[in-house]
Amino acid sequence: MASHIILPPDGDDDEQQRREDEENDGGGSGSGGDGEQQQQGGGNAKAALPFSAMCVRISRDSYPNLRALRNASHASLTDAAYVKISEGDFGYVLDDVPHLADYIPDVPTYPNPLQDHPAYSTVKQYFVNEDDTVPQKVVVQKNSRRGVHFRRAGPRQRVNFESDEVKACIVSCGGLCPGLNTVIRELVCGLAHMYNVNNIFGIQNGYKGFYSSNYVAITPKTVNDIHKRGGTVLGTSRGGHDTKKIVDNIQDRGINQVYIIGGDGTQKGAYEIYKEIRKRGLKVAVAGVPKTIDNDIAIIDKSFGFDSAVEEAQRAINSAHVEACSAENGIGLVKLMGRYSGFIAMYATLASRDVDCCLIPESPFYMDGEGGLLQYVERRLKENKHMVIVVAEGAGQDIIAKSIPASDQLDASGNKLLLDIGLWLTHKIKDHFKSKKMEMTIKYIDPTYMIRAIPSNAADNVYCTLLAHSAIHGAMAGYSFTVGMVNGRHAYIPFYRVTSTRNKVKITDRMWARLLSSTNQPSFLSQKDIDEAREADRLANKPPLPSVANHNVARAFDQSAATSSNGEI
């Protein structure tokens, strides 16, 4: 059932509205349960709300500046029909995902074919309980509220599609990433082997393939060994998203399950596709599998392919270390991927232990003067006779822009084209030591496109399999969502939650402190930088407040912002 917002009346009814809100929120009874549930079940209950068990009443006292709240929220009033928030005892909030039953009355259900599958007959409790949820925050104190939860992923006892009626399609969008072929393979094999689905199609070359290419029939046999290769057998592209054309083709071809693999921009596109499908009342489930080599997708623990990328990045770092050690005053400089988030650079540095300096987009640095990068490089060479520098591609863009005219060009995904920080640093370091009349050798290694083109390693292969299977189970059960691992458990996450913010390295966390301790590099930060970083972390971590939220929900969302699910260990 769709969520709605009930706006409070103007005038003299505000105080009465506030008192009713407090009682419905559990302030008087201590239960903390959902307002309408109390109305239906208790002797002290107020009159039932006029419509929808999912309604949430917002009082003006809860939000003195409701208009500003609406404007600031990424989940705007226009999206209220797609947001499902429900509450429980002790501050429990479920940020739920939409279901076919929200807009298709009496949608039929069927027994899950897995109950007769011989491979799963020995599993004691294979089906997920409908009430199972996954908390966004697991580190709590004894008086903490239960906070925000997501619906647990996994097979349901009842499904909304019969095997013979399923017509599924799979599309991959955006840049390459280790594990893409594994996800495609496991989606195909999972649909065929677990749910006996025979009609599975591949969409070629990203979103534009929905309306500019023929659909390709794919079977377990055709994808049997693609996981051993990098890239994507379906092809990919950036941009090309035309919601109306895409949904027109989905409708014309009778597709009823859409599996979309891609980053935050791709998941935004999946959300738009879902909204158009719902407007048309189509019986179609949309399942997003988040993909980004930078590991910058919000909410989830990590994205698939990240472990493989870090492992391959170490090979480049090892090569840089060999080059640096083999020359007098040798410097090995490695540029790794990380447009907005420096996770690959940070984890590869920590894993290597051969790195003397790591530069990422989240941590500002400066070149000249006391405590600057050039002074540190000079000191390190005098001490060790060699050093290794790792830099993420998005680091130092503000510094480069001061010496090189910045371009305002965008790629097809709308990302600003970056200046080459690795090449710029190479020239700046050379010029510095030339002015000092000090001999040195610098080797610049850029393995970025080599890293993203490799096949996934064993750990990522397993992770890709679990993501694909979770996506299949959710789509068969009629949900539309982005799937991901949250605190070690797979969950179904609303589209708006993974597209409204970006996961970034917290330079005020212990993990970054561990890196500084490992490399012995200066932080390059003033106290002002640290304070600004803390505030930026707080704001970036704060999830968008749904416009259907009351003050209990708002508190739960604020609590979930205290730590991210992929934060420090």
From TrEMBL:
<keyword id="KW-0963">Cytoplasm</keyword>
<feature type="domain" description="Phosphofructokinase">
    <location>
        <begin position="168"/>
        <end position="473"/>
    </location>
</feature>
<feature type="site" description="Important for substrate specificity; cannot use PPi as phosphoryl donor">
    <location>
        <position position="265"/>
    </location>
</feature>
<dbReference type="GO" id="GO:0006002">
    <property type="term" value="P:fructose 6-phosphate metabolic process"/>
</dbReference>
<dbReference type="InterPro" id="IPR022953">
    <property type="entry name" value="ATP_PFK"/>
</dbReference>
<dbReference type="InterPro" id="IPR035966">
    <property type="entry name" value="PKF_sf"/>
</dbReference>
<feature type="binding site">
    <location>
        <begin position="292"/>
        <end position="294"/>
    </location>
    <ligand>
        <name>substrate</name>
    </ligand>
</feature>
<feature type="binding site">
    <location>
        <begin position="337"/>
        <end position="339"/>
    </location>
    <ligand>
        <name>substrate</name>
    </ligand>
</feature>
<keyword id="KW-0418">Kinase</keyword>
<comment type="similarity">
    <text>Belongs to the phosphofructokinase type A (PFKA) family. PPi-dependent PFK group II subfamily. Atypical ATP-dependent clade 'X' sub-subfamily.</text>
</comment>
<keyword id="KW-0067">ATP-binding</keyword>
<dbReference type="GO" id="GO:0005737">
    <property type="term" value="C:cytoplasm"/>
</dbReference>
<comment type="subunit">
    <text>Homotetramer.</text>
</comment>
<dbReference type="InterPro" id="IPR050929">
    <property type="entry name" value="PFKA"/>
</dbReference>
<feature type="active site" description="Proton acceptor">
    <location>
        <position position="294"/>
    </location>
</feature>
<feature type="binding site">
    <location>
        <begin position="263"/>
        <end position="266"/>
    </location>
    <ligand>
        <name>ATP</name>
    </ligand>
</feature>
<dbReference type="InterPro" id="IPR000023">
    <property type="entry name" value="Phosphofructokinase_dom"/>
</dbReference>
<feature type="binding site">
    <location>
        <position position="393"/>
    </location>
    <ligand>
        <name>substrate</name>
    </ligand>
</feature>
<feature type="binding site">
    <location>
        <begin position="449"/>
        <end position="452"/>
    </location>
    <ligand>
        <name>substrate</name>
    </ligand>
</feature>
<dbReference type="InterPro" id="IPR012004">
    <property type="entry name" value="PyroP-dep_PFK_TP0108"/>
</dbReference>
<dbReference type="GO" id="GO:0003872">
    <property type="term" value="F:6-phosphofructokinase activity"/>
</dbReference>
<dbReference type="GO" id="GO:0046872">
    <property type="term" value="F:metal ion binding"/>
</dbReference>
<feature type="region of interest" description="Disordered">
    <location>
        <begin position="1"/>
        <end position="45"/>
    </location>
</feature>
<feature type="binding site">
    <location>
        <position position="264"/>
    </location>
    <ligand>
        <name>Mg(2+)</name>
    </ligand>
</feature>
<dbReference type="Pfam" id="PF00365">
    <property type="entry name" value="PFK"/>
</dbReference>
<feature type="compositionally biased region" description="Gly residues">
    <location>
        <begin position="26"/>
        <end position="44"/>
    </location>
</feature>
<keyword id="KW-0021">Allosteric enzyme</keyword>
<keyword id="KW-0547">Nucleotide-binding</keyword>
<keyword id="KW-0324">Glycolysis</keyword>
<feature type="binding site">
    <location>
        <begin position="238"/>
        <end position="239"/>
    </location>
    <ligand>
        <name>ATP</name>
    </ligand>
</feature>
<feature type="binding site">
    <location>
        <position position="175"/>
    </location>
    <ligand>
        <name>ATP</name>
    </ligand>
</feature>
<keyword id="KW-0808">Transferase</keyword>
<protein>
    <recommendedName>
        <fullName>ATP-dependent 6-phosphofructokinase</fullName>
        <ecNumber>2.7.1.11</ecNumber>
    </recommendedName>
</protein>
<comment type="pathway">
    <text>Carbohydrate degradation; glycolysis; D-glyceraldehyde 3-phosphate and glycerone phosphate from D-glucose: step 3/4.</text>
</comment>
<dbReference type="GO" id="GO:0005524">
    <property type="term" value="F:ATP binding"/>
</dbReference>
<comment type="function">
    <text>Catalyzes the phosphorylation of D-fructose 6-phosphate to fructose 1,6-bisphosphate by ATP, the first committing step of glycolysis.</text>
</comment>
<keyword id="KW-0479">Metal-binding</keyword>
<keyword id="KW-0460">Magnesium</keyword>
